[in-house]
TrEMBL record:
Sequence ranges assigned to domain HTH cro/C1-type in this UniProt record: 10-76
Designated name of the protein: XRE family transcriptional regulator
One Gene Ontology molecular-function label: DNA binding
SUPFAM superfamilies, alphabetized: lambda repressor-like DNA-binding domains
Top-level taxon of the source organism: Bacteria
InterPro entries in the cross-refs: Cro/C1-type_HTH, Lambda_DNA-bd_dom_sf
Cross-referenced Pfam families: HTH_26 (PF13443)
């Protein structure tokens, strides 16, 4: 059965819990640990959900926020309904195929 995996990026929440509310407050911590990102890159990390993230950046964020990767990224998975295979027959809904009766009235 296919599964859909989703995740939630919680960097902003963890920053706020530690009293950091702006990108400018996070940048010096990254720099002192050897991570050089532009302010726009850090802004995208904080305000959005990254599709790709390097392990050094992830490890540095965990060090700065004193957390683990599972604190930063929460995941969930759910089963998807099975799709019908090509050529597989499904039950026919006769009510949907039955024509409606026409009522004829005399003109006049």
């Amino acid at each position: 059965m296919p599964r859909q995996i989703s995740y939630r990026w919680r960097l902003r929440e963890l920053m706020a819990a530690r009293g950091m509310f702006t990108v400018a407050e996070l940048m010096p911590h990254l720099t002192e640990r050897g991570i050089t990102l532009s302010s726009s890159q850090v802004h995208r990390l904080v305000s959005g959900t990254p599709e790709r993230l390097s392990l050094p950046v992830l490890a540095t964020l965990c060090d700065i926020l004193d957390c683990t990767p599972t604190d930063l990224i929460t995941t969930s998975a759910q089963n998807l309904p099975a799709r019908r295979a090509a050529g597989e027959e499904s039950p026919i809904n006769l009510a949907a195929r039955r024509p409606t009766r026409v009522r004829l009235t005399p003109e006049g």
